[in-house]
Design a protein that fits this description.
five-stranded mixed β-sheet, alpha/beta, 29 strands, 21 helices, GMP Synthetase, Chain A, domain 3, Rossmann fold, 3 domains, disordered C terminus
């Protein structure tokens, strides 16, 4: 098995892992993709042949060692192969977010100086063509799906399959050169360059070596006992480090199968059909799935809803303990087995989680109630903490030590320390090489001893060694009275409610906390439908009096919870508004990984923030928006500012303790 290999005798590059898998697991499935409703499958030996043909085709096109090759598109085996083929020829793959607009792509393509771009379809071709005049080193583009591209100028535009055919035809001419380039690859060779989401500025190119990728894949696979027979569903953005390490790093190390859904619209159907054994999703995905479950139960018959509520109450009581192998009475176990027969089993099957052996969530904190819901069903969902700069893994939760309020213990080979200001630092074999063309930021982030500043504030529990993250260090501040201000803590509590999609809390340096809230159109729309409430737009539904009352009840419930936390009781929300539009990455308000860009939001909505603090009961506002086709427009709205009930706060100040 792959996990028995050691650093001394193991492959030193991702292409070397591919060749090993093609020999060791030749007939085992390596990649699957659903196309036109049918699952296509490639074995490891077939995958090696496909990647080698593309690599030879890239040599035929003139790819040089050290070139940057951008990869843009949805999760498809061909695009994962493109990243490995780029590594084979000594080039550096640079995956981009497929939903990025043309200008965002232009920045990354020009910054890395990509000579070659490999894309999925006409949409991505058009984006690159739109900005090609800004790209001084761009030469050739390869596309996968030919639909709509027949009449384009093909002097520098090539079909993926044709590049492979030309590679096969030129086998004798280029195979020695390909083998020579592969032979040069080692642990210190660059394996991939991934761009950060850019929450506070322009994205930075994070250079990761083969050492980072392979050592991290090896240790994390061993930590969770990942197997060659495992299945994953690759549906998260290919430009995100998590998808890269799961779908390329760990897949190549263990030899398990990477499954690609047909589209975002069919993802949940495809998830059920594959039934992955190893699964990752950010909290938003788990929140959305739970929201959909609760909506369906609201529409269910009286007996079915009673059955669900009855057995879920029992699952919450004993499910996590059974999952962790703790002592549970025979009667409780028997009742849980009945619940598995009537409720948990069918529900897991509907969600696509029947076979999940190891599940993870990360990216931001998940609501404890959401986390406990999935674990109560018997799904081994755990939390990890990581960064692009760490090749994902910093801490993870071992089996039997899973809690909703921590992100686990240090991963194998990782060291942690907490600075005086509470910021978390780490070092490990996964620590990135550098930020490309940015030595100043590299020096600010990574010191001479290899310690990396995470930008997050947290602490390590003395008795368990578990890490607890409070918030982003730059976002943690103090209220006017000196008490702690940690907005993410409150926002995550708000987002537990199915009716709330997003929340942004303000209050640093002020006497009171306030909040922006986005409703979840799916959940609130379902409520409106069941109650025969008509609405014509998100904006109309968001300002409906009953919706406002419901959101106010959620805010006040969170205030009760926050008031019970001695450190953070000052973060109760005094006033809030339900925004007239959803926060959107296309409008610059969220990153492509859906993280809130606080500074941009504060600047863009300064008039609404002013109204939250000056006692206004309502205000009129106008906001610029970006439509799907790139056109700009504006939305005018009159917003109601609501007061929320707060509980008394302890008079002692954190700063004085």
């Amino acid at each position: 098995m792959a996990k028995t290999l050691t650093r001394a005798d193991g492959p030193q590059s991702v292409p070397a892992l591919l060749h090993r898998n093609a020999k060791q697991f030749a007939d085992a499935p390596a990649y699957r993709e659903k196309e036109f409703g049918i699952w296509q499958s490639w074995t490891w030996s077939q995958t090696e042949a496909e990647i080698e043909a593309l690599a030879l085709g890239l040599l035929n096109l003139g790819v040089s060692e050290g070139d940057f090759i951008a990869v843009i598109g949805r999760n498809r085996p061909y695009l994962y192969w493109a990243m490995v083929a780029a590594q084979m020829v000594g080039a550096v793959p640079v995956p981009l977010y497929q939903d990025a607009n043309a200008e965002e792509m232009a920045y990354v393509l020009e910054h890395c100086g990509a000579r070659f771009v490999i894309v999925g379809d006409q949409e991505q071709v058009d984006k690159v063509i739109e900005v090609q005049d800004q790209l001084h080193q761009f030469e050739h583009m390869i596309y996968l799906d030919p639909r709509g591209l027949r009449k384009y100028d093909h002097s520098h535009l090539h079909q993926y399959s044709h590049v492979q055919e030309q590679g096969r035809a030129a086998y004798d001419e280029y195979i020695k050169e390909l083998r020579a380039r592969e032979k040069k690859l080692n642990y210190d060779s660059t394996g991939v360059m991934l761009y950060t989401s850019g929450t506070t500025g322009k994205p930075k190119g994070v250079v990761l070596s083969n050492r980072n990728i392979i050592e991290t894949a090896k240790s994390s696979s061993e930590f969770d006992g990942l197997r060659q027979t495992d299945d994953i569903l690759a549906y998260l953005p290919m430009a995100w480090v998590g998808d890269f390490i799961f779908s390329v790093g760990q897949a190549m190390w263990t030899g398990f199968c990477t499954n690609c859904p047909e589209s975002a619209d069919t993802m949940h159907v495809d998830l059920r059909e594959i039934g992955p054994t190893y699964y990752f999703a950010p909290p938003r995905v788990f929140e959305t799935q739970l929201t959909n479950v609760m909506i369906r139960m609201e529409d269910a018959g009286r007996f079915k809803k009673w059955l669900f509520d009855h057995y879920m109450a029992h699952a919450r009581k004993v499910g996590p303990a059974i999952l962790d192998g703790k002592n549970v009475s025979f009667g409780d176990r028997l009742k849980y087995r009945l619940g598995e027969l009537f409720v948990y089993g069918p529900l897991k099957n509907t969600l696509g989680f029947s076979r999940v052996r190891v599940g993870y969530t990360a990216g931001e904190a998940i609501g404890p109630e959401i986390f406990d819901f999935y674990r109560s069903l018997g799904i081994n969902l755990k939390q990890l903490y990581g960064q692009t700069e760490a090749t994902v893994f910093i801490t993870a939760q071992p089996d039997g030590e899973v809690r909703s309020d921590t992100v686990g213990v240090t991963c194998p080979g990782v060291e942690l320390k907490i600075a005086e200001n509470g910021e978390v630092f780490y070092r490990s074999p996964g620590v990135f090489v550098e930020y490309y063309k940015n030595p100043e930021s590299t020096a600010d982030t990574k010191d001479s001893e290899g310690w990396v500043a995470t930008g997050d504030a947290g602490f390590i529990e003395d008795d368990t060694g578990h890490l607890r993250i409070i918030d982003r260090a730059k976002d943690v501040g103090q209220m006017a009275d000196g008490s702690l201000f940690a907005p993410k803590y409150v926002e995550n509590k708000l987002k537990f409610f199915p009716n709330i999609l997003e929340a942004v809390v303000f209050g640093n340096g002020r006497e009171e906390c306030t909040a922006f809230i986005n409703i979840d159109l799916t959940a609130v729309g379902n409520w409106a439908e069941r109650n025969n409430i008509g609405y014509a737009s998100y904006q109309e539904l968001a300002r409906h009096p009953q919706v406002m009352d419901t959101i106010q009840s959620h805010v006040e419930e969170v205030n009760v919870s926050v008031a019970g936390d001695e450190m953070l009781s000052g973060c109760q929300i005094h006033r809030f508004v339900v925004l007239h539009k959803e926060l959107d990455a296309d409008d610059g308000e969220l990153t492509r990984t859906r993280k809130v860009r606080r500074r941009i939001i504060e600047d863009k909505y300064h008039d609404i923030i002013t109204a939250l603090y000056d006692g206004s009961k309502s205000l009129s506002t106008e906001t610029e928006v970006t439509y799907e086709d790139g056109r700009k427009g504006s939305i005018k709205a009159t917003l109601e500012v609501r007061d929320a009930k707060v509980l008394p706060v302890a008079t002692k100040k954190l700063a004085a303790e």
